[in-house]
Amino acid sequence: MSDTTRHIRDEVIGIPRYNSGLTLEEVRERYNPPVISKLGSNESPFGASASAFDFQNRAAELVRLYPDPRGHELCAAIAGKLDVDTDQVILGNGSEDLIAIICRAVVRPDDIVTTLYPSFPLHEDYAVLMGGRVERIEVRADLTIDVPALIEAAKRRPRMILFANPMNPVGSWIGSDDFAAFLRAVDKDTLLVIDEAYAEYAAGDDYPSTIDLLKDCDRSWVVLRTFSKAYGLAGLRIGFGVTSSPQLCDFFNRVRTPFNTNAFAQYAAMAALGDEAHLRRTIELALTERARIADGLKQLGMRPAPSKGNFVFFDCGGNAALLAEELLKEGVIVKPWKQPGYETFIRVSIGSVDENDHFLRAMKHSLDRLSAAR
């Protein structure tokens, strides 16, 4: 077979495959456990609002016709909820689609893109694919964000600053005062992109509403959100971005594919956005169970990071991939982290009460087996 690498850009060859996590079918095929708890991809155990699937009278039409290319109705609903102009809102096939769109629109060869580390890998990958160079600001030893280092990086005027708040995978976050100090350091020539995929879970006065903090800012910015997590629509792939101006949003709309969000996703997101009671129940469960999982991990000798996401990132003190494989034998899917320097860490999603009980039991059994094998 001929070598096809000659046809591929160097940036593509150098990008590692994205770790999407295992499916239920893959785990059944490998170990066939009686029960599987899927806690590797930060999906909501409650799923979506029941109203999101009330398609009966419109299904044929939604399938037959192209979707609204701009998703005007959904954009207007989002704008009303967040008190921004409708023309500041852009939809994506999940918020990761918007990360790719922004990088294609903004990043040039050798541009610096600053991000937090460990990172959501696509924050780095899409920048590198456009020829950009990634500058990582690593978390401190206690796994909190190194805000002074981030401020110093901002002063160097990178082309773009892109990071998640709360962080993925760590769960750490930047509070209001720190964010204000950071924002003062951001140059007007730098595009600021804040990925708030987990903002709904970030309860507390110490977590700022980034959109509110940026509304009167004279910088160019984008805040990304998603319906995949708290709203439970991961399988339909729909997210959105709020931009600092309609002009910036228009440029991004020129880069995206014309019909990048499907009609079912737009319909379901509209319904999910309107069911605030379901969202509250989802968040309340996640916050209660997040604290319980963190406590349970500490009792097992693990070191969990502080988290405002629907997940906990913890140092297992050994080979995370090996522990994750032992957990699979018990029917529990987690995500061992593979970025350099964090190979002893695992990210576990917050599931239902039963799923979380399953995880804690499986952790004890797996640790006991690994200890006995040493």
pLDDT averaged residue by residue: 95
User: What sequence of helices (H) and strands (E) makes up the elements?
Assistant: HHEHHEHEHEHEHEHEEHHHEEHEEEH
How many DSSP helices?
14
Report the strand count: 13
Please give the domain count. Answer: 2
Structural class comes to: alpha/beta
Instruction: Work out the radius of gyration.
Output: 21 Å
As residue ranges, the low-confidence spans are: none
Mass-distribution shape? globular
CATH architecture of the largest domain: 3-Layer(aba) Sandwich
- Termini gap: 43 Å
Keywords:
alpha/beta; amino-acid biosynthesis; 13 strands; 374 residues; 2 domains; transferase; Aspartate Aminotransferase, domain 2; four-stranded antiparallel sheet; Aspartate Aminotransferase, domain 1; 15% strand; HistidinolP_aminotransfase; globular; PyrdxlP-dep_Trfase_small; histidine biosynthesis; seven-stranded mixed sheet
Summarize this, please?
Keywords: Amino-acid biosynthesis, Aminotransferase, Histidine biosynthesis, Plasmid, Pyridoxal phosphate, Transferase. With 374 residues, the protein is of the alpha/beta class.
Structure description:
It catalyses: L-histidinol phosphate + 2-oxoglutarate = 3-(imidazol-4-yl)-2-oxopropyl phosphate + L-glutamate. Homodimer. Its cofactor is pyridoxal 5'-phosphate. It comes from Rhizobium grahamii. Its EC number is 2.6.1.9. The protein is an alpha/beta fold and 374 residues long. The protein folds into 2 domains: 9-45 and 277-373, Aspartate Aminotransferase, domain 1 (Alpha-Beta Complex); 67-275, Type I PLP-dependent aspartate aminotransferase-like (Major domain) (Aspartate Aminotransferase, domain 2), CATH 3.40.640. 40% of the residues lie in helices and 15% in strands. It is built from 14 helices and 13 strands. It has helices at residues 10-13, 24-30, 59-64, 72-82, 95-106, 121-129, 147-155, 176-185, 210-214, 246-255, 263-274, 276-299, 320-329, 353-373, and strands at 37-38, 89-92, 112-117, 133-138, 160-164, 191-195, 221-226, 239-243, 303-304, 311-315, 332-333, 335-336, 345-349. Strands 2-8-7-6-5-3-4 form a 7-stranded mixed beta sheet, sandwiched between helices. Strands 9-10-13-12 form a 4-stranded antiparallel beta sheet, with helices on one face. Strand 5 (160-164), helix 8 and strand 6 (191-195) form a beta-alpha-beta unit. Helix 4 (72-82) runs parallel beside helix 11. The protein is globular.
